[in-house]
Amino acid sequence: MPEITIPNNWQPRPYQLKLWRYLCNGGKRAVPVWHRRSGKDEICLHWSAVAALDQRGNYWHMLPEAAQARKAIWDAINPHSGMRRIDEAFPREIRAGQNVQEMKIEFINGSIWQLVGSDNFNSLVGSPPRGLVFSEYALANPRAWDYLRPILAENGGWAVFPSTPRGKNHLHALYDMARKNDAWFAERLTVDETGVIGPEIIAEERRSGMSEDEIRQEYYVDFDAAIKGAYYGVLMRQAEEEGRIRELRYDPALPVYTAWDLGIRDSTAIWFVQQHMGEVRVIDYYESFGVGLDHYAKVLKEKPYVYADHIGPHDAAVSDLSTGKARIQTLASLGINMRVLNREGSVEDGIQTVRALLPRCYFDAERCAHGIEALKQYCSEYDEDRKIFSARPRHDWTSHAADAFRYLARGLPDQSFAPPKRDRYAPKQQRGGGWMRRVG
C-alpha cells in the first residue's frame, strides 16, 4: 500500500498558517472571517482529514442548506488541479468506504466525515460529532450552534466557523466575542491582506455588475455593507439606530396578540405583540420544532400574558389527512382560539404590509433576538446562473419568523393613530365573554 501523507499534496498558504497552527496546537474554536475565494473550505477539509485520522469520531462539514452541500463541496472540482475537492482532501487510500447518497466518507480507522446542512440540524442528533465546520456561518441557522455546542463541550471537540459577513448578524456577534476571548481564534482578512485577488479582478467584478455593497461584503469583509436582496434590512437597521430595539417590559394593562407560522415538518414560530397609541410593541418571540401543538399551548399558558387574539395562516383551517382534524380545531381543544386569515393575494403584497408596519415597531432585544435576526436576514432567492434576485423569498431558517410576522402585519387591528374601540379588538365569535382572555 503506498504511503500517504496527510494533508495530501497540500500546504497552507502563507496567510492561512496562523489558523492552521492554531488548530494543530489543539485550538478548539475558530472564527476565520475571510474574503471570497480565500480557501476557507479548502483549509477546513484538509484539517478534517488530519483530525479524523488522528482521533476516531464523527466529523461534519455543515453548509447553510443541505441542498447546497453536493454542488458546493461533494461534486466541486478544483479548477487549478482538475480534481474533486473531496478526493484531494480525502484520498482513496485513507477511505474504507463511502455513501454517495448521504455524502458520507468512512476512513480506515473508523472515523466518519459527512456533508450536512445546518437547516436540518435537529435530524442529525444521534451520532455526536467531534469536529464541526460551519461553512458560511453568516447564512447558517444560528440555533444549530446553540443546539450542538453542548455536545462538543462534553466530548472536547472542535468547531470552525469560516465565513464572509452578511451584515451585523450572529457571525458578527460570534466574531466580536472571539476577538475578546483568548481561548478562541478570530481573524478578519480582506483581499488587501491576502493578495489573492488583485485590483484588476475587483475592477472586472464592478464592470460585470457587482454592486459596491457586494464588493465591500465579499472582498473587503465589511460587516456594515448592506445585505443585497434583504427585504427588511434597511428598516431593521433604522429600528436599531432609532433605539427601537431595546429592553421592553410587558404591560399588564394591554392585551397581547400572537401571530403564528405553523410548521408541519419544520419550525413553528410565534410573535407576541402589544399595541398602544400607534406603537407596536413586539415583546416576545418563540420558535421550536419537532413537537406537537400541545407544546405551544403549554408555552402560551406559562407566560404571564393576557391574550386578545391569536392570528394564524389560512392553511391552519385545512384538515390533516392523518387525523381528519384541522390544526385550528386541535388548538381550540387546547384552549387557543385562533383567527385564521384569508389566503393572501401574494407574498409580495404581504412583504409590503410588513414594510409599512415596521417603522411603528419596537422590539425587546433579548426575548426577540432570534426573530429580529431572522427579519434582518430574510431575503429573496438568488439565481446563481442568471446572477439576479428573483421575486420569490428564499426558504431557509429565516422564513418561519418572517412568515409569522407577515401574518401579524395582515391580522393586527389598525391602531395607527389612536386606540381602537373595544369592539374592534376581537373577532365576532369571541365577543360576549370580554375582549381580553387568558388562555387555559
Describe the structure.
The chain is an alpha/beta fold and 440 residues long. It folds into 2 domains: 14-218, P-loop containing nucleotide triphosphate hydrolases (Rossmann fold), CATH 3.40.50.300; 233-430, Nucleotidyltransferase, domain 5 (2-Layer Sandwich), CATH 3.30.420.280. Helices cover 32% and strands 21% of the residues. The chain contains 15 helices and 17 strands. It has helices spanning 17-24, 40-54, 66-74, 85-89, 142-155, 170-179, 191-194, 199-207, 212-218, 233-241, 293-302, 327-333, 347-357, 369-377, 399-411, and strands at residues 29-34, 58-63, 95-99, 104-107, 112-117, 129-134, 158-160, 184-189, 245-246, 256-261, 268-276, 279-288, 307-312, 338-340, 361-364, 380-383, 388-393. An 8-stranded mixed sheet has the order 3-4-5-2-6-7-1-8, sandwiched between helices. Strands 9-15-12-11-10-13-14 form a 7-stranded mixed sheet. It has a two-stranded antiparallel sheet with strand order 16-17. Helix 10 (233-241) packs across helix 14 (369-377), helix 13 crosses helix 15 (399-411) and helix 14 (369-377) crosses helix 15 (399-411). The longest helix has 15 residues, at 40-54. The radius of gyration is 24 Å and the shape is globular. The termini are far apart. Residues 417-440 have low confidence and may be disordered.
